[in-house]
Amino acid sequence: MNLPERLPTAAVPRSAARMADIEPFHVMQVIARAKELEAQGRTIVNMVVGEPDFPIAPLVQQAAMRVLEAGHLHYTPALGITPLREAISNWYRERYGVAVPAARIAVTTGSSGALLLTMGVLLDPGDQVLLADPGYPCNRHFVRAMDGEPVGIPVGPDTAYQLSAELVERHWTPRTKAVLVCSPSNPTGTLIPPLALRAIHEVVRARGGVLISDEIYHGLTYGPQVPTALELGDDIFVINSFSKYFGMTGFRLGWLIAPEAFMFDVDKLTGNLFISPPDIAQRAALAAFHPDTIRVLEERRELYRAQRDFLLPALKELGFDVPVVPEGAFYIYANCRRFTDDTHAFCWDVLEKAGVAITPGLDFGDNDPRHHVRFSYPKPIPLLEEGVRRLREYLAHSGSKR
Ligand SMILES: Cc1ncc(COP(=O)(O)O)c(C=O)c1O
Q1: What is the 8-class DSSP label of residue 268?
Q2: At 8, is the pLDDT very low, low, confident or very high (cuts 50, 70, 90)?
Q3: 3-state secondary structure 270-339
Q4: What is the pLDDT of residue 2?
Q5: N or C: which end of the chain has fewer CB within 10 A?
């Protein structure tokens, strides 16, 4: 056989174009550096990670151990085991007074799985999804991963860093398919008032779009309880999780409640993407709704409230500006214009010099990130006090604008 003298150079495979739009968590570098500093013997006050330090609730732990001891872990139905779907349905009846049939509930791998599924079921290439900026960064990436176009709408203190009907109307285009709201919000901890949510829903419905409500921080509010968007109708996609209120991040379990007409597609897609949610996590989660577990979780919620009530005034006194009281989640999103025009550099400097780890605004969107940082506060108050002490000292020496 006559081979050509030189084989043609093969084209180098490259990632899909969408990958250019999917950013890593910038804060991972801060976390890695904090770990390095700890390995060198420094103590770091870590207010970065979006989860408390508590162990899982005792009954959940015992349930998981029983499952392991029995030695059987298998695939489950794609939409989750029936007892858990029914337990979630009960939760809505008891907590919110809303009837949600188990048939509309899909148990998922974290609310991350639910968000990806929602975008996969809803979006055609180029469909736009309107989201608040600042917002949880993965939400725009879920949209992009499913070939949609996330449209960040800058929000500020005037709307409590939330979307409003007026903003949705103003940014709606013929390509808009859905609006995603998140209340309480990450990173701002602020809420959408029920009437404002109703107004957004009306605008979305009138335009033939879909409202998606990320309710992952429900249960973690420090004023009146927040109603679920499901109260407004059964045409809304609602996402929730065992990660935050239930304190089960490591189980990777959440759920999606979708309008009935979409459940066939939800079932099909989740089966293809994930086969099923994790068996052990689902069976452990059955114990999450037990009154003894809820008692533990409610005690923890009171601690988070006390932690917020300590940290919020302390940060304001240091000169951070927090124009809207965060009424939920466990975050404070602070404007630090007084200290810096580059919070990325600021966070690095605070970590190196003061040993306090906080998240730069860059991770939450394009809306003035260089003047904002996020504090994650579910930490013992003495640790928060130490963080504040260190920040005070740091700001006294290096706090003026560079
Ligand atoms: C607003 C929001 N949505 C969704 C998630 C995803 O959480 P999980 O997949 O653990 O349920 C997070 C995690 O921090 C979040 O803050």
Answers
A1: H
A2: low
A3: HHHHHCCCCHHHHHHHHHHHCHHHHHHHHHHHHHHHHHHHHHHHHHHHHCCECCCCCCECCEEEEECCCC
A4: 60
A5: N
In this structure, what token pair is assigned to residue 302?
Answer: 């009171």
The whole-model pTM stands at 0.94
Centre of ligand 1 to C-alpha 40, Å, is 31
Cβ of 183 closer than 6 Å to ligand 1, yes or no, is: no
Nearest to 301 by CA among 239, 363, 217: 217
Give kind and range of the element (H or E) at residue 144: helix 137-145
**Helices then strands, each counted (H, E), the chain:** 12, 12
pLDDT tens for residues 233-256?
999 999 999 999 999 999 999 999
pLDDT over 70 (residue 401): no
Ligand 1 pocket check for 109: Cβ under 6 Å: no
Answer whether 243 contacts ligand 1 (Cβ < 6 A): yes
State in Å: Cα 385 to ligand 1 middle. Answer: 27
The better pLDDT of the pair 8, 285 is held by 285
